[in-house]
């Protein structure tokens, strides 16, 4: 049996794209690259490949310009690269193209790494769909990832500031948050070699259109109208007062000029105390 | 339409009640402590409760499929909902519309390009969507909800094992969700000692005593005194805390743009008429660094150099 | 990041870098890319090293490029260069806090081939020019900082060290095109004195405005644009201001004397803010959203502050060699950078072909420069920086001239109109200008610019 395979899925993003705030038209800029999250995924993939003594494949779905992100990965130490030609229509489409292309050339990966969110779409759904397709376990939005007894240990952010610790068995798909690790500097020989490298391209057989989905419109972002429940109160006057807050007591803003730092600290702590911020 | 709410230890995720409201009160609560979680969701009308133990996206998706088939399914776009929704879509073989600000039976409006663009999609047939928290209000249902407990038979699937759930830690909390924030501005880092990185470290220590996270203006992150992840504003994080204390922050439009949802705002600044102080509930006109040092002293913060 | 070392790295006999090139060019600004194009076209193996993530990523300038010099390098460059607008209208303004005297010139000739000046973004322009070098065969290595020169035991420069792991390169010749305050030139010991003393600081904001608004306010259409330079716009600190039109943004900024800025204790942003509030500028920039703010040094010493241009295995080009022609309102750097880079590339190619890249073998560089516009213009304008930065030109003349013109145009009835001579004497006196100085400055101005 050959060496195990660690895959990192990289998406070329356009961090300088501008959006017309009136129409929502997106103006692409020429210089794409990796998001910080994908850079982190790449670094994790390189580390995991080292610790599992595995090959490291960098792959992307995108046009020819997306070769650049693969060269970045090769320069940093990825052992091989694969581009799937095409413009993915959705997260599901991306996952399908990647899975098919990887399976056609390699065995199923032991570990597949992704960034937590892409910059443009930003749903973080691609990694979960990749896990579904490979039948692998998923651990997403990780802030920490280490190998542990042939498996993985990870920490993940939940909402409201909580976190969870996970034990993960391989095969697995993991997505990582940005700035958890820093992508290593590519060596100069690595950079020179990556510039010259031939990037294999997989061309998917048929183009895929999900006929169930149709785009009605693209507009600039406008917050949704908020429905507010009718205020309580029997008489209309009461309801108007409840809605506008008229005649209810408000604390006016205060401006204080304390004589010294001690007096200032007292002012601040008193304020916090009154608002219930101190235990 | 039906909402699926993953529950951990009787706690529903951010945006759960809004998601229930989007589905007109119809929901499935799955996880641990679902009955208590249901008490907190005022928009519930009709609810299935499933005690399924620890979060397991692959197993839950398989086990829920039959219950959800042929319906539009919506989940809150909080971490657990974002993880479960794609697995459900895959299991049900329907489209996924992730990151919506509005979901109807016919489709959804999706926020894209960092919430600068809306893609309005129409879907024929059922689909799975996730709804971004904070996009709508949820008025309480008129009557107590109808609750039905459903039995759950665990599905054998490849899911990670939850080793532990850690309580919130203000040092690492996502700023966007932190309830209390101390902001570091140029006025804190350039004046009297403590200055620069030292001032930010002390602010961090004081923040821990107050259960508050630390954020910063671009001047401070540009100077390298704080991580970019800590930058508050239009090109940083948008925060919604109960309490925001601004230390030496002038209140530039790009910064103010990130603190719109603050309940109690305090500004510490030597300039009584800077925008931040004029909009604050309490403006303290004094040297920010000296006040910080005094606070550290009063709150019993130990030396900040040892970490 | 490894910080640059102050002295070259000595290479032992037989010690090799990880790769060897005929020429290693440091900096993919206009100077470096022009040199790379020439060398690659001469069939040489060229590495073009750039610390930014792409050429132009961090490069700052005002906004106008004079492309004539490109005719030789890239025929019909105007059909493909990433141009925002062609400058068909040029204004010079003398400002006092409440007055403005403007000389306004427009010509249709500059709006058609072969064109004169154009506004362009450096991120686009530098990337385009470096792309030309790559097309010619040069290897562009980005995000790579050169940290030191490498020399053999005899002191001859044989390559560079970069901040990357295994980052040593060998080179037949190194071209330092690393911009103002070049540390490579310093490391090679080619600067007689500290270049900082001869530098000014340029700061600039980019203000986004709709295309139609710009065309309406500046009276231009299509891809025509405006270039405005100002004197007296810098709160008494020696320097000048500029305002250029891009397609859907404006570049506005000031260039000021570094020492005097320090003494005045104003932040450079405040100078721009003040300029934007000036009654004659405010209506032009109103509503513009700041999309970018940047600051950069400019070598402003001119001819007298240039370093020795060649070393043993080394050439210096562009701002690194103080080639920027910055005489107050006159701010041309990119064209001089391209010109000097081009001649450096040719001289290096000739030296490589002759098999002698020692100081002597590279001497052709200075000769080529001297017989071209590059040194000719610098020699001619060598007195201009001193004159333009003088107290009189900076403070007194704008105020005096504005007063004079205000007097000429003011209708004084029922008093009779005062004569021009009287007005001149009066405003000169009021602003402490001696007519003797005025005459002398005029003569030296004519000598410099004429
Ligand atoms: C395109 C763009 C995007 C931007 N995005 C962001 C963003 O997302 N977030 C952001 O924060 N900024 C952003 N900025 C920068 C923003 O415009 C301001 O420059 C920045 O917010 C100012 O930070 P500050 O308040 O810390 O500094 P300053 O504006 O310099 O204010 C310092 C304040 O400290 C006070 N002070 C001075 N000394 C003391 C002392 N000893 N004690 C107490 N107070 C003192 C001063 O009175 C002053 O009010 C952006 C700018 C641009 C152009
Ligand atoms: C505010 C301002 C306004 C200006 N306005 C104008 C104008 O309107 N028109 C005009 O023609 N000129 C203008 N100039 C001048 C002009 O910008 C410069 O003269 C010109 O950029 C010089 O080109 P260069 O190639 O020599 O140097 P640069 O453009 O400075 O390029 C140097 C390159 O070297 C790279 N580099 C530096 N050190 C290293 C290293 N150690 N390793 C690797 N790479 C390195 C840098 O990243 C950079 O890309 C202006 C300058 C300023 C500051
Ligand atoms: N076109 C693509 N090619 C390769 N990987 C991708 C692609 N799109 C998304 N990914 C991966 O999926 C992650 C999350 O993206 P998204 O689901 O779009 O938010 C990214 O950080 C990438 O790791």
Search tags:
B: 307 residues; alpha/beta; Rossmann fold; 2 domains; five-stranded parallel beta sheet; 15 strands; 27% helix; C: alpha/beta; FAD/NAD(P)-binding domain; D-Amino Acid Oxidase, Chain A, domain 2; 3 domains; nine-stranded mixed beta sheet; 20 strands; 34% helix; binds flavin-adenine dinucleotide; binds adenosine monophosphate
Word description of this protein:
- Chain A: Its cofactor is FAD.
- Chain A: It holds the Pfam family ETF.
- The complex is a heterotrimer of chains A (279), B (307) and C (450).
- With 279 residues, chain A is of the alpha/beta class.
- Chain A contains 7 helices and 13 strands.
- Chain A has a domain at 5-16 and 28-202: Rossmann fold, CATH 3.40.50.
- Chain A is extended.
- With 307 residues, chain B is an alpha/beta fold.
- Chain B has helices at 16-22, 34-40, 57-68, 79-92, 186-189, 196-210, 218-222, 253-256, 275-278, 288-298; strands at 2-7, 26-31, 46-51, 73-76, 96-104, 107-112, 117-123, 128-131, 146-150, 161-166, 180-184, 213-216, 243-247, 264-269, 282-285.
- In chain B, the strands form 2 sheets. Chain B has a 9-stranded mixed sheet, with helices on both faces. A 5-stranded parallel sheet of chain B has the order 12-11-13-14-15.
- In chain B, a hairpin with a 4-residue loop joins β6 and β7.
- The radius of gyration of chain B is 23 Å and the shape is elongated.
- Chain C is built from 15 helices and 20 strands.
- Chain C has helices spanning 30-41, 70-73, 122-136, 183-187, 211-218, 258-264, 268-277, 282-285, 334-354, 364-370, 373-380, 384-388, 391-409, 420-430, 435-449; strands at 9-10, 19-26, 46-49, 64-66, 85-96, 99-106, 117-119, 139-141, 146-151, 157-162, 168-176, 199-208, 224-231, 239-245, 249-257, 289-299, 310-311, 314-316, 325-327, 330-332.
- In chain C, α13 (391-409) packs across α14.
- In chain C, strands 1, 2, 3, 8, 9, 10, 11, 17 and 18 form a 9-stranded mixed sheet that branches.
- Classes of the chains: A alpha/beta (279), B alpha/beta (307), C alpha/beta (450).
- Chains in contact: A-B, A-C.
- Chain A binds chain C through residues 30-31, 33, 185-189, 191-192, 195, and chain C through 18-19, 53-54, 123-124, 127, 139, 141, 144, 162-169.
- β13 (254-256) of chain A pairs parallel with β15 (282-285) of chain B, so a sheet runs across the interface.
- The complex binds flavin-adenine dinucleotide (2 copies) and adenosine monophosphate.
- One flavin-adenine dinucleotide sits between chains B (185-187, 191, 217-220, 231-236, 248-250, 252, 254-255, 258, 268-271, 274, 287-289) and C (290-291, 293).
């Amino acid at each position: 049996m050959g060496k195990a395979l660690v895959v990192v899925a990289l998406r070329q993003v356009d961090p300088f794209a501008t959006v017309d705030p009136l129409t929502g038209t997106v103006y692409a800029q020429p210089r794409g690259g990796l998001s910080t999250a994908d850079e982190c995924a790449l670094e994790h993939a390189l580390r995991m490949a080292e610790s599992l003594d595995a090959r490291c494949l960098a792959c992307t779905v995108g046009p020819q310009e997306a070769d650049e992100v693969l060269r970045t990965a090769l320069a940093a130490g990825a052992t091989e690269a694969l581009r799937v030609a095409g413009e993915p229509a959705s997260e599901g489409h991306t996952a399908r193209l990647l899975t098919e292309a990887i399976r056609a050339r390699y065995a199923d990966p032991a570990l597949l790494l992704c960034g937590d969110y892409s910059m443009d779409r930003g749903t973080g759904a691609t990694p979960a769909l990749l896990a579904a397709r490979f039948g692998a376990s998923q651990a997403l939005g990780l802030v920490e990832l280490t190998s542990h007894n042939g498996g993985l240990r990870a920490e993940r952010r939940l909402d409201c500031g909580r976190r969870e610790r996970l034990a993960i068995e391989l095969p697995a798909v993991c997505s990582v948050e940005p700035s958890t690790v820093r992508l290593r500097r590519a060596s100069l020989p690595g950079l020179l070699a990556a510039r010259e490298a031939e990037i294999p391209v997989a061309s998917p057989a048929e183009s895929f259109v999900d006929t169930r989905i149709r785009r009605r419109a693209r507009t600039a972002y406008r917050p949704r109208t908020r429905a507010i429940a009718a205020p309580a109160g029997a008489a209309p006057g009461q309801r108007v007062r409840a809605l506008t807050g008229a005649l209810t007591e408000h604390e006016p803003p205060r401006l204080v000029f304390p004589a010294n730092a001690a007096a200032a600290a007292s002012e601040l702590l008193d304020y916090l105390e009154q608002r219930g911020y101190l235990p | 339409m039906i909402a699926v709410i993953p529950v951990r230890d009787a706690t529903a995720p951010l945006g759960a009640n809004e998601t229930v409201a989007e589905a007109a009160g119809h929901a499935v609560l799955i996880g641990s402590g679902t009955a208590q979680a249901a008490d907190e969701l005022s928009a519930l009308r009709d609810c299935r409760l499933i005690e399924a133990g620890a979060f397991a996206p692959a197993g839950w998706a398989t086990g829920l499929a039959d219950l959800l088939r042929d319906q539009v399914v919506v989940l809150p776009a909080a971490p657990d909902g974002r993880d479960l929704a794609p697995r459900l879509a895959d299991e049900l073989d329907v489209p996924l519309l992730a990151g919506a600000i509005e979901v109807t039976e016919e489709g959804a409006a999706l926020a894209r390009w960092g919430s600068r663009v809306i893609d309005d999609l129409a879907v024929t047939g059922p689909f799975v969507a996730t709804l971004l928290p904070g996009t709508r209000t949820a008025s309480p249902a008129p009557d107590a909800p109808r609750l039905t407990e459903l039995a759950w038979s665990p599905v054998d699937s490849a899911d990670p094992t939850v080793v532990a759930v850690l309580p919130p830690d203000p040092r690492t909390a996502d700023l966007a969700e932190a309830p209390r924030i101390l902001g570091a501005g140029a006025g804190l880092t350039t004046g009297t000692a403590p200055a620069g990185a030292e001032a930010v470290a002390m602010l961090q220590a004081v923040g821990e005593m107050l259960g508050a996270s630390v954020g910063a203006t671009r001047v401070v992150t540009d100077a390298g005194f704080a991580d970019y992840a800590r930058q508050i504003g239009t090109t940083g994080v948008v925060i919604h805390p109960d309490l925001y204390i601004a230390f030496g922050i002038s209140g530039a439009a790009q910064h103010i743009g990130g603190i719109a949802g603050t309940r109690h705002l305090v500004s510490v600044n030597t300039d009584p008429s800077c925008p931040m102080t004029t909009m604050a509930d309490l403006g303290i006109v004094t040297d920010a660094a000296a006040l910080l040092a005094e606070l550290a002293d009063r709150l019993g913060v130990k030396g900040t150099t040892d970490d | 990041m490894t910080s640059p070392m102050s002295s070259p790295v000595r290479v032992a006999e037989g010690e090799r870098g990880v790769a060897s090139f005929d020429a290693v060019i440091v900096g993919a600004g206009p100077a470096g890319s022009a040199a790379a194009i020439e060398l690659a076209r001469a069939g040489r193996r060229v590495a073009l090293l750039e610390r930014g993530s792409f050429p132009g990523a961090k490069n700052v300038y005002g906004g106008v490029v004079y492309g004539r010099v490109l005719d030789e390098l890239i025929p019909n460059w105007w059909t493909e260069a990433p141009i925002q607008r062609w400058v068909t209208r040029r204004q010079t303004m003398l400002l006092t806090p409440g007055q403005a005297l403007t000389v306004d010139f427009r010509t249709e000739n500059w709006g058609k081939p072969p064109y004169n000046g154009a506004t362009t973004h450096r991120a686009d322009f530098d990337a385009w020019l470096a792309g030309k070098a790559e097309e010619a065969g040069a290897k562009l290595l980005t995000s790579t900082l050169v940290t030191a020169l490498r020399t053999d035991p005899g002191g001859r420069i044989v390559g560079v060290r970069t901040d990357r792991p295994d980052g040593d390169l060998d080179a037949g010749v190194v071209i330092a095109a690393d911009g103002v305050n070049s540390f490579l030139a310093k490391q090679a010991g080619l600067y007689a004195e500290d270049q900082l003393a001869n530098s000014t600081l340029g700061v600039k904001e980019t203000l986004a405005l709709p295309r139609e608004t710009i065309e309406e306010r500046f009276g231009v259409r299509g891809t025509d644009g405006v270039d405005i330079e100002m004197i007296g716009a810098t709160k008494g600190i020696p320097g000048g201001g500029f305002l250029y039109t891009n397609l859907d943004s404006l570049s506005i900024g000031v260039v000021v004397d570094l020492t005097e800025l320090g003494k005045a204790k104003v932040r450079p942003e405040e100078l721009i803010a003040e300029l934007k509030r000036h009654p004659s500028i405010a209506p032009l920039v109103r509503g513009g959203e700041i999309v970018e703010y940047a600051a950069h040094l400019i070598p402003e010493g001119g001819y007298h502050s240039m370093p020795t241009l060649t070393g043993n295995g080394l050439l210096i080009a562009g701002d690194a060699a103080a080639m920027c022609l910055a005489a107050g309102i006159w701010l041309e750097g990119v064209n001089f950078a391209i010109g000097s880079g081009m001649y450096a590339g040719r001289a290096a190619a000739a030296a490589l072909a002759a098999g002698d890249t020692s100081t002597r073998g590279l001497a052709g560089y200075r000769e080529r420069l001297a017989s071209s516009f590059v040194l000719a213009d610098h020699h001619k304008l060598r007195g201009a920086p001193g004159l333009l930065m003088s107290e009189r030109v900076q403070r007194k003349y704008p105020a005096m001239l504005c007063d004079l013109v205000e007097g000429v145009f003011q209708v004084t009835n029922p008093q009779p109109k005062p004569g021009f001579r009287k007005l001149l004497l009066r405003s000169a006196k009021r602003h402490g200008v001696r007519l003797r100085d005025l005459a002398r400055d005029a003569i030296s101005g004519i000598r410099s610019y004429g």
